[in-house]
Every structure is written in structure tokens, then in C-alpha cells.
Amino acid sequence: MITSTMQDAPLTITQLFRHGRTIHAESEIITYQGPGEPAHTATFGEIGDRVDCLASALTALGVESGDRVGTFMWNNQRHMEAYLAIPCMGAVLHTLNIRLFPDQLAFVVNHAADRVIIVDASIAPLLARVRDQLTTVEHIITCGEGDTSGLGDTIDYEELLAAESPGFDYPDLDERAAAAMCYTSGTTGNPKGVSYSHRSTYLHSLAVTSAQTLALSESERVLIIVPQFHANAWGMAYAGWWVGADLVMPQQYLQAGPITDVIESTRPTISGAVPTVLSDILHNRPDADLSSLKYIVCGGSAVPRSLMEAYDETFGVEVIQAWGMTETSPLGAIARVPKRDSSNDPMSWRSRTGRILPGVEVRICDDDGAPLPWDDEAQGEIEIRGPWITGAYYLEPTEEKFHDGWLRTGDVGSINSKGYIQISDRAKDVIKSGGEWISSVDLENTLMGHPAVREAAVVGVPDDRWDERPLACVVLGEDATATPAELTEYLTGKVAKWWLPERWAFVDEIPKTSVGKFSKKDLRALYSNGELAVENV
Ligand code: ADP
């Protein structure tokens, strides 16, 4: 090997932080304070000084290199300050999912051994429920107004910062050191932790800004709807800071009414959200003015083609589908239309799960672990590797989740010759009927194209003859009606005949997970407990 002459500069969040605070000192973070209230705005320059103060304050509290500091917060400016101060001082940011069940919340705090937690006072009671069980937490820092009485002794965030002055001597860090951690939402068993390094965050941030992916730049204003505790807000917060995009933080105002008020009043150009949020806006605020948005990145679960078409028609806003996981930082694939589109049908590309991102490698493997061809047909488990893909779970031996250095995603799908992935299911949600697979995702997406259907989730339920058959759970739109016979007729010709569900349940709401996805585990439990009114056709 011939030695390169290049410098070996470590890839750290400190670089990203310094760049944003100086080069883009005039860019802004706008934190929404509720309908009719003036938003709080601060520049990156001002925030950089506050980040210094937070780093000094945490140091004064005894936080040392490698210590975990939790955040239990909405998306807001202070959360971004924690995003920057904690990793840059050499500690580890642990974003806590505020919607976890109490037992799981206590589990992740104890498992990560958080020493300090910064909490938004408005949700302090949620943390207070488990305060007694938190064995490692020494200090709780509260932000803003709220009932913090159940937390014991607390320290006020602003008082803490007021006692410090700008200027902090950030340490030189190893790029491979942990910078942040996030636990999966634990749809089965306890949540598992992923710890991102400085290097992985730096590289993922570069990937997020690329024109091939989210194309973040100084010219953009990014509305960060995806929670900062859900896979780092899909990387938009760090990447946006780095390139000087204005960041709009909506806090708890995520329902259709307030979030469209945020959009109309702050006029962001880019946003990202899970399908359930977009569907909520579409059905409750179809008259909203979303014209400032160039596109919205959508993922976390399959994005129905009908939802993308409705956004085109109703709002004139492009929805771009992306795929990823907490374990993949999270961006792994994004469904932009290829340059040579001989199909003349952009939607046939946009409705795919996503095209593999530069920087990661993806393959599909059969049950024996043998790689399958990229012929758009062969179905196997998706495996991924690359510098922002986790290689292990934090303090949790899980060899079965890895295969020769590749992460086994638990997603099943195919890949075509241009590297577009199509996910048909999560392995644990696949419906196996008479030895053949039925894609619950395909059935759901097709059903959600019916004008009367607002939401549809399909799960496999035991069947004497076929082992498993699909049960379709449907939420109808307001004042809409549809019978199983009508929906079956609608599906006919769009999916294989033997996929057509015999069992139907019309429900008011599909249960959701802590990150807003259909909770199939809960649906299956409702079914097996006899709590669903099922019509058999
Ligand atoms: P959790 O595993 O806790 O639900 P994640 O956000 O890490 O949280 O979930 C990652 C999973 O979400 C993926 O493995 C995949 O099953 C699903 N997913 C993400 N994006 C898409 C997409 N565009 N289409 C289908 N499934 C998706």
C-alpha cells in the first residue's frame, strides 16, 4: 500500500457544531409555542453560545467523558442544544422516547445508565411515574413550565445556563467514540439500544444533505416533525445545523390543526413525517396551505401510493418515500425517480420503498442465508451494511441479528436491477397462507386507495385450513360507508385472488406504536381476545 498524504482529521459532531455556529451564525431555530402565540426564534450564533453554557453546566454537575445524559423532550431549541453540547463535551446523548410504556422507559434509562436527564416540564409527570425505579439518575434538569413535583429535586435549565458564560474547551474526540444512543421501540421484548459514533453521525449527516437524498442546504427551512427521539429525527437536525438550514421545531403541536398552523405561519420548504401524520393532515385539514413545501420525506412504515397521489392533488406537495431503521441512523434508501424513466410513470418509482443510498450496501438473502438475485421478484430478508449501520446492540448479545457483518433488518422484500428495494412485509408480520406468502403491506396499501378507507391494517390470524389467513382491519373516513363485499370487489384484480381476506373488522382506530406505526401486535391480541367484531364473508 502506498501511504496517502491526506490529513487524518477525526469526523466528529464537534466539527459539524463549529461549522454551523460560525459559518451559519445567522440561520435560525424557530420553536413553535402554540396557536396564536409568538414563536421563539434564536440564531445559530446565539444557540452556539448557549451550547457552550450547557456543556459547562453539565461539567459542573459532574458529567464526564462517556457518561450518558438522557433527554425526555419534544422537538425544540433546547433539545437541539442538548444534541450539540452532550456529544461535543465527550458525553453520550440518550434520546428517550416519551411515549414508551413506563416499564420500558425505566428499562432503557437503567440499561443505558443515564446520570442526568433533561426533561420538558410539560411532560414531567410521564417521567415522574418511573422516577423511583431510575437507579442511576443523579440530576434532573427541567425546561419551562409544568408540574415537576413528582420528580424530587430538580434544577431549572435556564438558571443552570445563566450561571455559565459562553466559551467551552471542547475536547479532542475519537471519531469512533459513542456520541448518541437510541433504543428501538421494542415491538417485541425489551427495547434494544443502538449507539451512534461521531463518525457515523458525521457520515450520515453528509448523506442526508446530498442532493441524491434530502438535499438539505442553507436555502432550506426544515420542519422537523419526526421526533428527535425517533432515530435522531431521521438525521435532519444534525444535517440541517451543519449546512445552515433554518430548523422549525413544532414541540407538542403535532395534530393536524396546529401542525398546519406551524406550516402556514413559518413556511418551511422541507419536512419529514410518518404516514399517519400525513394522513391526519390530509383528512382533517385538506384546505391547509402547504405551498411552501417542496417535498415531505415519509417513511417509518410503507407509504401508500394513494397518500402520495392525494398530496400531489390536494396540496401540490411531493411526498418522497424513504426507508430506514433506528439501527441504520436511519437513512438507508430513498425513492427518487431515476434519470432514465422509460416507464413514463414516475409514481411507479415513487411508490417503491426506496433506492439504495450511496455509502451503504444492501442485499437480500433466502432462508439459508444465500444472496438472491436483484430481479424485482425474488423475496428474501433485507440485509444492510455500511459506516452508519449498527454492528451490534448496546450491551446485548444478539448474534442472530447479524450475518457475516451484515445487519439482518427483519424486513422481507425484493430488489430490482437499479437498486430499488420493495418491502413486502416485516418478517414477523408476513402472512403465511397454505405455505405461500401474502404481503400485508400490499393489501393495506391497496385498501387505503379506496375512497372510503382512511386506514387499513392487515394481520395474519390462525386458520384451520390454511394455517393463517389475512384479517383486514379498516377505519372508514368520516361519513363514509363500505361493506366487506364492496372492498373485496375493489381488491379483486389488484391483488392475487387467494389474498382476498375473508375476515373483516371495522374499527374506530388502528392501535399505534410509540412512534405512530400500526401496532400489529396489539391488533393480533385484540383478535385473539375476541375484542374485535369480525365479519366473515
Ligand atoms: P421500530 O423498529 O421500533 O418500529 P424503526 O423506526 O427503527 O422503529 O423501524 C424500522 C422499520 O420500519 C423497518 O425495519 C421497516 O420495517 C419499517 N419501515 C421504515 N420505512 C419503511 C418504508 N418506507 N416502507 C416499509 N417499511 C418501512
What does this protein look like?
The chain has 537 residues and is of the alpha/beta class. Among the domains are: 8-200, Rossmann fold; 429-536, 2-Layer Sandwich (GMP Synthetase, Chain A, domain 3), CATH 3.30.300. It is built from 15 helices and 27 strands. A hairpin with a 4-residue loop joins strand 20 and strand 21. Helix 1 (13-23) packs across helix 2, helix 2 crosses helix 3 and helix 10 (275-284) crosses helix 11. The longest helix is centred in the N-terminal third of the chain and has 17 residues, at 44-60. Bound molecules: adenosine-5'-diphosphate. Residues 184-185, 187, 231, 299-303, 321, 323-326, 353, 409-411, 423, 426, 515, 517 line the site of adenosine-5'-diphosphate. Adenosine-5'-diphosphate binds next to strand 14, strand 20 and strand 21.
Assigned CATH architecture of the domain at 8-200: 3-Layer(aba) Sandwich
Helix content: 25-40%
Helical segment count: 15
Strand content: 25-35%
**Cofactors, ions and other ligands in the entry:** adenosine-5'-diphosphate
Outline the low-pLDDT stretches.
none
Shape: globular
Spell out the blueprint of helices and strands.
Elements: H1 13-23, E1 28-31, E2 40-43, H2 44-60, E3 68-72, H3 77-88, E4 92-95, H4 102-112, E5 114-120, H5 124-128, E6 139-143, E7 155-156, H6 157-162, E8 178-183, E9 193-197, H7 198-209, E10 221-224, H8 236-243, E11 246-249, H9 256-266, E12 270-273, H10 275-284, E13 295-298, H11 305-315, E14 318-324, E15 331-334, H12 346-350, E16 354-356, E17 361-365, E18 380-385, E19 402-403, E20 406-415, E21 420-426, E22 431-433, E23 436-438, H13 440-447, E24 453-463, E25 467-476, H14 484-491, E26 503-506, H15 520-528, E27 534-536
Parallel strand pairs: 1-11, 3-4, 3-5, 4-8, 5-6, 6-7, 10-11, 10-12, 12-13, 13-14, 25-26
Antiparallel strand pairs: 1-2, 8-9, 14-15, 15-16, 16-21, 17-18, 18-20, 19-20, 20-21, 22-23, 24-25, 26-27
Helix pairs in contact: 1-2, 1-8, 2-3, 7-8, 9-10, 10-11
Bound molecules: adenosine-5'-diphosphate.
